[in-house]
Amino acid sequence: MAQLPRPEVNRASPRSAFSRRSIAFSSLFIALVFGVIAGPLPWAIGRGGPNSTIALFMQPVGAKQTAHPANLVSYVPSPVSIRYTRLAARSLAPTLAGRRASPGPCQTAAGQRLRDFNVELSIDKLVAAGFDHDTSINMSMIKSGLHKIDLEYAIDVIQELGFDRERVMEMASRYPFLLRADVQLVPQKFHSLEDIGFDSKIVRKMAGGYPQVLFCNMKKRIANIMDLGFDRKAAMKLIPAFPQGSRSVIEKRIALLEEEFGLDRKAVMKIAASFPQFLAFDINGNIKPKLDLLQAEGIETTGPVSIPRIFSYSLDDKIKPRLMVLKQRSMMPTTDRKLSYYLKLSDAVFSERTDPSNCLRGKRITRKQKLKVDALQEAGIEIASVASYPRIFRYSLEGRIKPRLMALKQRSMLPLTEGEVVTYFRLTDSEFSKRVGIAHG
């Protein structure tokens, strides 16, 4: 009996078997996903109609979007949000798609609609928290997932650090990553800067102007600044003045000041240690115009080294107006140090100390001195003339000032010029009598 040939068995390689298993599992996964999505689809569309949540994703990309019914979904995006966020999200599409060599299913039109929807959620949630619409769009473009965060809780946690709500919202608008799911990390970072040695007020000021400072490696920054030649105390002063500046930025500013004003490095570092904000001033827009004004007014200055704080005051809002007042009242300072005294006064105190009836060379006067001022003004002598000779207030009102004013009035020698005030009141009695032609008895 002839033996029948045995059928050949196709022995696939392990790699082929693995590929078949992968295809099988992939098909099963796709079927399950399709079942989850397609299963409730007729019910959702039937309940919500063309405006339902799922129907929104079934629409073409260019289709006009409409609001969700309030009885089906609690979120109701505004038409303005939809229009703006769709344009903004599409502008980021090349960046998102570039993360893969070939676009996958999540980069398709459906994936784009999902991203649009999440951005819309974030924008409306930010607007509800108090942010304006344009700021909410920018924040949603910078940080995704804001719709998943309890914004009110995050803002409250940051407020407990000593910020008011308006300040927190301003910080978050500049750095949206401040509003995070693990928002408790923000107080930890805040207190870690206090542990390094910064005062809480300084930390609050730095974080208010540059929130990113909370998440930088502060110990490394201090070490980098100390490598430039500063001690730790000076480095701790420089960082609040340059919260966003690196070692290279500070080094360039020092070199620029050395070149512009012919200062040696030691002098610049001394200025930076005493008044670190000086390194941040613009040379052509701030320092040079103020130096030119001081020289034009005849005020002695040794450049930016002596009183660097002068350059922190506004040229048009403070320096020029106060120099004008001082010039009108013959109280013009002769050095930058005296000018610095007048500039640091508040407006109320400056007005009080430069008021002719209530001042003498910027110093408050007593009640007795006020009586002497009144007597001199009644004689037609300006307080500016008296201010040039403050020693007059050491003389007795009844023993010298009034008698001499009476003698001068009788001889029609009033009012006196500034130089005559100094002359007539510093003379002895015999010299005064001889000068005005009266008998000395």
Features:
single chain; about 450 residues; mainly alpha
Which band does the percent of strand residues land in? under 5%
Low-confidence stretches: 9-15, 34-106
Biggest sheet statistics: none
Compute the average pLDDT: 74
Rg to the nearest angstrom? 39 Å
In terms of structural class, how would the helical and strand content be classed? mainly alpha
Categorize the overall geometry. Answer: elongated
The count of helical stretches stands at 24
- Separation, N- and C-terminal Cα atoms: 173 Å
Series of H and E elements: HHHHHHHHHHHHHHHHHHHHHHHH
| Helix residue percentage | 55-70%
Short description:
The protein has 24 helices and no strands. It is mainly alpha-helical.
What does this structure look like?
It contains 24 helices and no strands. It has 441 residues and is mostly helical. Among the domains are: 41-99 and 106-148, no CATH class; 282-354; 367-436. Helix 4 (79-91) packs across helix 6. It starts with 13 loop residues before the first helix and ends in a 5-residue tail after the last helix.
